[in-house]
Amino acid sequence: MKRISILITTLTAVVFVCACGKEEQNGNQSGDEPANHDQEEPFASSGTIGGHEYVDLGLSVKWATCNLGAQNLWETGNYYAWGDTKPYTEWTYANYGFSFVPCSPDYVLDAQWDAVTANWGTSWRTPTKEEIDELIHINNCDWIWEEDINGTGVSGYQVKSKKNGKSIFLPACKYIPHENYQTPSKVTGHYWSSTASAAITKHPSDQSPFTIFFQNGAHYEGTMKCFDGLTIRGVVGEPNTYFPKPEDCPKDNAETTRQGFTVSGKVGGYTYVDLGFPSRTLWATYNVNATMPYEYGEYYAWGETAPKSLYNQETYKYFIGNSETGPYHYAQYSKYIWFDGHGTPDYKMTLEPQDDAATVNWGANWQMPSREQIEELADYCLWYRNDLNINGKSIIGFVGESKLNGYKIYIPFADMKYQQVPMDYMTCWYWSRDLSGGTNKEGSDYQAWHMIIKVQDNLMEAKETSRYYGFPVRAVVKK
C-alpha cells in the first residue's frame, strides 16, 4: 500500500504529518516497520502495522495516527454506522444492516462486523469502551484543544500521553444523523467504540453503543444511536475482556440452594453474587443486618450508621437548623455540603467510611453502592416481580437476572421510613453512598442518590431524595 508523507513548513518548525495510507478492504499488508525517529515531531508515528501508522502512547493499545479512511491526521475520514463495515451514506433503523445481528457474548463487536478490521486487516480493530476510558482518564493523557491544526482550519484535540509525551490528534468530526435531525457543530467530535451498551438488546431505535464525545473544554465517554454515522480511530492490541466470561463467575451451590438465589462466595462472613458486570462489582445477596435475601434488615438515614425510631429532618445527624435569611430558609448541615446555602461547603460528595452503614456494620471490605453501580445493576439485569411466602407472610420483591451470566439477585420491597412508620408508595428505596450534587436550589442540592424500584412497571433506576428518610442498604464489596 502506498504511503504518503506530507511535510508542512511553518516559520518556526517542521511539523510531521502522518501517512495513514489508503483504506483497503481486508488488507493483508506485512507487519511492523520501524519509525524514523530522527526528528521529535509532536505527532510522529511509532511505526506501521499492516501498512498503517500508529502511535504508542504507553497505554494498553497502540492508536492509529489518523481516522479510518483518512490520508492525514486532520482529515475526518469515512463515516460508519455501528457494526457496518462500509462507509455510511444514509440509513435509518428500518434498513440498517446490523439491526438484527447479535453482538458477541461479551457485548463487543465481532471481527466480521468491525469496520477497522474489515478495512485494515486483522491486526487492527475499533477500540473498546475500556480503551476509550483509558485514553480519556486524567492520569493517562492531557487533552489540548487545537483551533487550527497545521494551518488547515481544522479544530480538534491533541491527546498527549503523560506516560511518554507522544501525541495523537483527533479532529472534530460532526456525526451524520440517521434521519433529518439537526447536525451538530463541526467543533464537536464523535468516535465509535466497539462496545455496546446494555440497550443493544432492545429495538434498533433504542440501541446506543459507547463513543468518545468531545468539544472545546470537555471530553468524555458518550453514547449514540447505532445507525448514526460516526468516525472511527483504530487501535492495535489484544482486546480487553471487558465483560467476564460465565466461568470466571463461580457459584456456591450449597449456599445458593439455602438462600434460593445465586451466591458466588463470602467476604468478611457475608455472601455476595458476581453478576458478571463490567465493573466487576460484587453485590451482597441480602441487606445490611439481614440474614436472607427476603429480609429487610435495618433502616438508615443517609450518612447514619445505626437505626432509630424517628426519621425526619430534626433527628437527622447532620441537621443543625434552618437559615434565617434567603427566600427558602435552607436547611443547614454540618457535613456533606457542596452548596453554600446549606452551610459551609466541604465538597464531600461521597460518604466517608465512618459514615457508611455497610462499612461500619459489615467491616472494611464492604460499602454502600455508588450511583454508577446502581445504574449498572439496573441496566445489566432483567427485572421482574417475584413475591414469596415465608412462614405464612407474603414478601413482595424483585428479581434481577443478569443479562451476562444469568445469575439472580433478590431485592425485597422495603418501602421507606419517615417519622415513625414505613411509608407505602408502592415503590422501594435503597441508599447509595453518593450525594446528588443537583443544581435545584429548592432541594436537590442537599439530597442523595438512591436505588428505586416501582411495583407498577418493575422499573429500576437511580433517583435523588432527602437524606433524612430511612432506607435499607444493599452493600457491595469494596474494590
Walkthrough of the structure:
By secondary structure, the chain is mainly β. It has helices at residues 115-120, 129-136, 253-259, 357-362, 371-379, and strands spanning 6-9, 14-17, 33-34, 47-49, 52-55, 62-64, 124-125, 141-146, 156-161, 167-171, 188-192, 210-215, 218-223, 235-236, 265-267, 270-274, 282-284, 319-322, 331-333, 366-367, 381-385, 388-390, 393-395, 397-402, 408-412, 416-418, 421-423, 427-435, 448-454, 459-465, 476-477. The chain folds into 2 domains: 6-236, no CATH class; 246-477, no CATH class. It has 5 helices and 31 strands. The strands form 11 sheets. The chain has a 6-stranded antiparallel beta sheet. A 3-stranded antiparallel beta sheet has the order 8-9-10, with no helix packed on it. A hairpin with a 7-residue loop joins strand 16 (270-274) and strand 17 (282-284). The longest helix is centred in the C-terminal third of the chain and has 9 residues, at 371-379. It is globular.
